[in-house]
Automatic annotation (TrEMBL):
Stated name of the protein: Alpha/beta hydrolase
Species of the source: Nostoc flagelliforme FACHB-838
Keywords associated with the record: Hydrolase
Keyword Hydrolase in annotation: yes
Limits of the AB hydrolase-1 domain: 26-264
């Protein structure tokens, strides 16, 4: 299993697990909370068949990566991504982030620039700024995030069960676009993540990306379902075309948060078309 070391805590290394398969232009897939790189399985085969080199990795604290007690903020997440791109010497790269992964894409481009990147995809995005403030009335009340953190502390496994109901809009799609087995798989992956990392990721969702977005100088595709219950479309994706210069928004009608699973055919078609554009 390949790993890249991104730091150290006490006597142990902090290692990021990654997979690097296929040949062609590199596409780096950055997963969402609280899953792992394997959550891209409905995209990986399609992208490989289309002739791309696919790199997935597990965010620190999740999947097969190390579970340190610190570093669950977007400056650190972007630094981990920068280490991966540098160590693998990836160029002409397409960065594709889903949910929390869109924060890595945005902060990376804001902090490190686009020397190694030719395009970006923000799927079910966190940016621009999720917290409701006087200058950000479209955001979400802080009490919502305080409640999430309390639920994780009180009973993390029970919180995960509730979370995935809204992640997949189970009441709408169970038995058609999502199975009990797939939900159980997601729960198992999430339950194996760092308990502290799971908790510490919640404040990172409130990162203000409004200074990063004008720095994005590559063509950018934004994709989101208009029935997203995790990251409300009006607070996130709907606002981004005005904030990213060369961008366009594709809305998946009726799509939940996890459109890369429930609406994979539509998402893959849009993604492939975007990748093929000059």
């Amino acid at each position: 299993m390949p790993y890249i070391t991104v730091g150290q805590e006490n006597s142990g290394n902090i290692d990021i697990y990654y997979e690097d398969i296929g040949a062609g232009q590199p596409v780096v897939l950055i997963h969402g909370f609280p899953l792992s790189g394997h959550s891209w399985e409905k995209q990986v085969g399609v992208l490989l068949k289309a002739g791309y080199r696919i790199v997935t990795y597990d965010r620190r604290g999740f999947g097969d990566s190390s579970q340190p007690s610190f570093g669950y903020d977007y400056d650190t997440f972007a630094a981990d991504l920068n280490t991966l791109l540098t160590e693998l010497d990836l160029r002409d790269t397409v960065l594709v982030g889903f949910s929390m992964g869109t924060g890595e894409v945005t902060r990376y481009l804001g902090k490190y620039g686009s020397e190694r990147v030719s395009k970006a995809v923000l799927m079910a995005p966190v940016p621009p700024f999720l917290l409701k403030t006087d200058d950000n009335p479209e955001g979400v009340d802080r009490s919502v995030f305080d409640g999430i953190m309390k639920s994780i502390v009180d009973d993390r496994p029970a919180y995960l069960s509730t979370f995935f109901k809204d992640f997949y809009n189970v009441d709408m799609f169970l038995g058609t676009r999502i199975s009990d087995d797939a939900i159980r798989l997601s729960w198992n992956v999430a339950a194996g993540a760092s308990a502290k990392g799971t908790l510490d990721c919640v404040p990172s969702w409130l990162t203000d990306f409004r200074d990063d977005l004008p720095c994005i100088d590559v063509p950018t595709l934004i994709v989101q379902g208009d029935a997203d219950r995790i990251l409300p479309h009006h607070s996130t994706g709907a606002r981004l075309p005005k904030l990213i210069k060369d961008s366009r928004l594709v809305v998946i009608p009726g799509g939940p948060h996890a459109i890369n699973w429930t609406h994979a055919d539509q998402v893959n078609s849009v993604l492939l078309d975007f990748l093929k554009e000059n």
